[in-house]
Amino acid sequence: AQSVTQLDSQVPVFEEAPVELRCNYSSSVSVYLFWYVQYPNQGLQLLLKYLSGSTLVKGINGFEAEFNKSQTSFHLRKPSVHISDTAEYFCAVSSYNFNKFYFGSGTKLNVKP
Amino acid sequence: DSGVTQTPKHLITATGQRVTLRCSPRSGDLSVYWYQQSLDQGLQFLIQYYNGEERAKGNILERFSAQQFPDLHSELNLSSLELGDSALYFCASSVEGLGGASSYNEQFFGPGTRLTVL
Description:
The complex is a heterodimer. By secondary structure, chain A is mainly beta. Chain A has strands at 3-5, 10-14, 19-21, 24-26, 32-38, 44-50, 56-58, 64-68, 73-78, 87-94, 101-103, 107-112. In chain A, strands 2, 5, 6, 10, 11 and 12 form a six-stranded mixed β-sheet that branches. A four-stranded antiparallel β-sheet of chain A has the order 3-9-8-7, with no helix packed on it. A two-stranded antiparallel sheet of chain A has the order 1-4. The radius of gyration of chain A is 13 Å and the shape is globular. In chain B, strands 2, 4, 5, 6, 9, 10 and 11 form a seven-stranded mixed β-sheet that branches. Chain B has a four-stranded antiparallel β-sheet with strand order 1-3-8-7, with no helix packed on it. Chain B has strands spanning 5-7, 10-13, 19-24, 31-38, 42-50, 53-57, 64-68, 74-78, 87-94, 108-109, 113-117. By secondary structure, chain B is mostly beta strands. Chains A and B meet through β6 and β11 of A and β5 and β9 of B.
């Protein structure tokens, strides 16, 4: 079985500052990893994904994440955040055939002016 | 706009009642997934259908059931509702792959149905 842990439930940060949202996973098999963003009153939108290959993955809106197999982590980073990045971010792990997605509890990013 | 539609947007009902949530996938997508997002449980995968057949099951209660019709829309039926069933229910769709990185197909999420059980 797979599981995902997002240690930070809320992350406040000032505009133009860098941010890192942490995600750790556990799995007995190979997994695929994802970050989704949920803006207020909206559904989830895929930010980026790791399926194979380069461990540094670039996504939309300037976000990137690095897959670290030894530390079972997939932290999300952005070098300079904007007010519009205020949203809730979910890390997710999927089984090999993408039948089941397991989501973390979410991290609310609050970007302050 | 993801192309996935869900109706209704909001639903308020009483304990013990039964409701049906509807999802229309993106054109061409054969798979439909249902998720429940609640404050205490977070975002949980409930069930997946592929081309009319159940493909995978997650944390779905026995009081809940789903189906996918020949036109590929899906319905999630929630019965004997309890206060704790109040949540946001999301539907997602994708073109099903056979597994493996080369066949990955993104899940596109609908805007959700907010269910309030009083």
